[in-house]
From TrEMBL:
Occurrences of domain Solute-binding protein family 3/N-terminal (ranges): 34-257
Protein name: Polar amino acid transport system substrate-binding protein
Cross-referenced InterPro entries: Solute-binding_3/MltF_N
Pfam families: SBP_bac_3
Matching PANTHER family: GLUTAMINE-BINDING PERIPLASMIC PROTEIN (PTHR35936:SF38), MEMBRANE-BOUND LYTIC MUREIN TRANSGLYCOSYLASE F (PTHR35936)
Signal sequence residues: 1-23
Keywords: Signal
SUPFAM superfamilies given in the database record: Periplasmic binding protein-like II (SSF53850)
Length: 268
């Protein structure tokens, strides 16, 4: 009896000491058979709805490509700019393809991949706004989407100029563009990739000046603590570049040669 008790205790201790197997996000996606991608669909040509009201664009195709690599279905979850990070935190989405800048503050909330797309900020302006250079934006009504880098950077400039009262924040970029087209705002700040689709859509809107802040290296976002999932995303991005798919999609939707994803002086 004493031997049995000792053996039982030894088995219990061994069980407690043995490493526990936990499923991670990669396992969850494969087991569920679906990759849930949060995508901003008012960001043409990167994310938008086509003539049939179906999701389309660079980010949508990246989601489809990653789902194919995982041999699962792709589910596009439309989000606003402000909903990108909460979609990960609340487990509404497995991943965010949405031109998300990898700031240190945001990295306290979600995890980030290596860069997968690069943009710079540019304004679209009313045809009669008189705005031709960045300096011409002083004293003008400027709009941007809430929760974006353009909003954050412009507010710093507006504070410096003492013009915070002239700033207008909107929930989506489509609302920003419409405000400029209707004369409610003199300028709207977006990315260089969106300028041509917007100015083609509205006769009253023309390309404006480039903004003075730095190039925006954007990342794919996922759960902060799930390192194996972030590693897989990094490997997927690398494969997209090596295979030429990144170049193919960028030329398809943007029309220019794809920019180099390496940040000068940084190893990836």
């Amino acid at each position: 009896m004493k031997f049995l008790k000792v053996a039982a205790m030894a088995a219990m201790v061994a069980g407690l000491a043995a490493p526990q197997a936990f499923a991670d996000k990669l396992d969850d996606v494969i087991n569920n058979g679906v990759l849930r991608c949060a995508v901003v669909l008012d960001f043409p040509p990167i994310g938008y709805r086509d003539a049939n009201n179906e999701p389309a664009g660079f980010d949508v195709e990246y989601c489809n490509d990653m789902a194919a690599a995982l041999d699962v279905d792709a589910e596009i979850i439309p989000v606003t700019w402000a909903e990108r990070l909460p979609a990960i935190v609340t487990n509404r989405a497995d991943i965010v393809f949405g031109g998300t800048s990898d700031s240190l503050e945001r990295a306290k909330t979600v995890g980030f991949s290596i860069p997968y797309a690069i943009y710079f900020a540019q304004a679209v302006v009313g045809k009669d706004s008189g705005i031709e250079s960045f300096e011409d934006m002083k004293g003008k009504r400027v709009a941007a989407a809430v929760g974006t880098v353009p909003e954050q950077e412009w507010l710093k400039i507006a504070e410096e100029w003492g013009e915070e009262n002239l700033y207008q924040g909107y929930q989506s970029e489509n609302e920003v563009f419409l405000a400029v087209a209707q004369g409610k705002a003199d300028a709207g700040i977006t990315t260089n990739t969106a300028v041509k689709p917007v100015t083609d859509q509205y006769d009253s809107v023309v390309p404006g000046p480039r903004m003075p802040w730095t190039t925006d290296y954007t990342s794919v976002a996922g759960p902060r603590k799930d390192v194996s999932w972030l590693n897989y995303i990094n490997l997927f991005i690398t494969h997209q570049v090596r295979s030429g798919r990144y170049e193919e999609l960028w030329q398809k939707y943007v029309g220019d040669s794809a920019p180099e994803l390496r940040i000068p002086g940084v190893m990836y």
